[in-house]
Structures are given as structure tokens and as C-alpha cells.
Design brief:
By secondary structure, the protein is of the alpha+beta class. It is built from 2 helices and 12 strands; from the N terminus they run αββββββββββαββ. Helices cover 12% and strands 30% of the residues. The protein starts with 5 loop residues before the first helix and ends with a strand.
């Protein structure tokens, strides 16, 4: 009786495992061929542009900030305005101020979702975000560089206690809206005594 060549079995098993997507260790990607270019994921389909009319404020004050969302893609997007609870992640879109702490002390209630809070944004169009973006109170004297993050999560489970029923048609539009995460340009605010 002849013994099978175990090298052949091992090579066959290894190739079969690799083809099937199985491995007992890390598998290196195939080497790039001549002229191959590294690809990167495209950026978000929107830009968030932040501006202020109060580049100087007193200690403990809130700057006047304005955020505009701009469609930089070639297709119409379905997006959601920030609302009551966006600042604490209880609803979409989630809004977060970067570069300063936000003193979002609040109750557990949120306003219900209403018609008109979901909008279509055509290519090249822009829309000012609602006042629900809020503004951080700046308690430290000196220069602050603020940015705003907008994260639309269509399938987010909403939190808080709604002060009425969410509009069902608008909620259906929320569920079909564009998932987006974008951070605005920074804006410098000087806080003085």
C-alpha cells in the first residue's frame, strides 16, 4: 500500500480553503499589478459650511453660529433637519460641536417629528440648518476653534419622550433619507473676559 503524498493534500486543502474564503491565518491581498492605483472611498455627498457673525464673545456667552448644508454630489439627496434631541443623539441627525463642550442639560422630552423636517436637496443647492444646532457656551478665555458634525442615521432608534406622535409619513421619509456624516470647516471664536 502506498501512502498519499501529504504535500499534495496540504497544498490542495490550502488552495481550497483560500478559494472558499477560509483561512487559519492572515491572507495578504494580491500584489498590485503594474500601473495599479490605490483607490479611496469618495467623500460625503454634502459639505457643511459654518460661519459666525460674532467672532468675539464674552466669557460664558454663546457665539451666533450659522450652518449651511450644500449638496456637492450629482444627485438629489433626501436629508433631515436637526430637531429637538439632535444635540444628545436622541434623533437623527445627530449634531455634535467639536472644540468646545456643550452644556446640554435638559429634560427627557422631545418635540415630535413634523412634516417639513425632511427635505430634498438638489445638486449644488444649499440650505441653512435649523436653530436646533444650538451653540456651545464658551467659558474659557482665549481662542476656540469650533466645528460642527452632522450625522444622519436613517435607521436610528429615537430616544426621549415625544410630546405628541411623530408624523408617520415624515418618519417614513426619515427612514429613506441619505446616511451622511460630515464635519464643517472650523470657525475661530475669541473669548474675552
Amino acid at each position: 500500500m502506498t501512502r498519499p503524498d501529504t504535500r499534495l493534500l496540504s497544498a490542495t486543502f490550502g488552495l481550497t480553503s483560500l478559494v472558499a474564503g477560509c483561512s487559519d491565518g492572515p491572507v495578504a491581498p494580491p500584489p498590485a499589478g503594474p500601473g495599479a492605483q490605490e483607490t479611496t472611498a469618495p467623500g460625503p455627498p454634502v459639505e457643511l459650511r459654518l460661519s459666525t457673525t460674532t467672532p468675539r464673545v464674552g466669557k460664558g456667552e454663546r457665539p451666533a453660529l450659522r450652518a449651511e448644508i450644500v449638496n456637492v454630489s450629482r444627485r438629489t439627496l433626501l436629508l433631515v433637519q436637526p430637531g429637538d434631541g439632535s444635540d444628545v443623539g436622541w434623533r437623527t441627525p445627530r449634531i455634535e460641536w467639536l472644540g468646545a463642550s456643550f452644556d446640554g442639560g435638559r429634560c427627557g422630552n422631545i418635540d415630535p417629528l413634523r412634516a417639513g423636517e425632511v427635505f430634498h436637496l438638489a445638486p449644488g443647492a444649499r440650505l441653512e440648518l435649523s436653530p436646533w444646532i444650538g451653540a456651545p457656551r464658551l467659558d474659557r478665555v482665549g481662542r476656540h476653534e469650533l466645528s460642527l458634525a452632522y450625522t444622519n442615521v436613517p435607521d436610528l432608534e429615537w430616544g426621549g419622550v415625544p410630546l405628541g406622535a411623530h408624523d408617520p409619513e415624515t418618519m417614513e421619509l426619515v427612514r429613506r433619507s441619505e446616511p451622511v456624516h460630515v464635519v464643517s470647516n472650523p470657525v475661530e471664536i475669541l473669548v474675552e473676559e
